[in-house]
Amino acid sequence: MPLSRALVDTLGAWSADGTYAGHVRVLIVDGANVVGSRPTGWWRDRAGAAEGLRQAIAHADLGYDVVVLVLEGAARRGWPAGEDGAIHTVHAPGSGDDAIVEEVRARSAAGDEGVVVTADRALRERVAAAGGSSVGPSWLLARVS
Fold first, then answer.
1. Is residue 86 in some structural domain?
2. Residue 17 falls within a domain, yes or no?
C-alpha cells in the first residue's frame, strides 16, 4: 500500500522514481484480538467497538509512521476501508489473520518494519515467519486508553 505524498514529505527521502526510499515503521493492529482482549460488552456491538478502537488510535501518539487497523466480520461496519492520514483501515475479506500476515509480508518485502498487535500465539508465529514482530494488546491499550 503506497504512502501518501504528504506523509512521506514529513518522513523525508524520496527516491528518483518518486517512491519513498526510507525505512517505515508500521504498526498493524489485529482489531478483533485487541477489542476482544477486554470484557467491555464489545460482542453486543462489534461495529461500535471497532469504531471506538479506530478513534482511540487516531488520538494516540503510538510512535509509528503508519498504523494499519485490520477489521473482519461485523466489525468492518465500524469504519470504512481506506487511508485517513497515517491510519489505514483494511477490511479482511475472510480471515483477519491471513490479511495481517499478508500485510506483514508486503511491508517486509518493501523493507519496512511491521509490528503486529495481537495476543494470538499462532498469529505471532506466522508474523515472525513473514518477517515481522509482535506486541500484546496491553501495549496498545495502555497508550490509547
1. yes
2. no
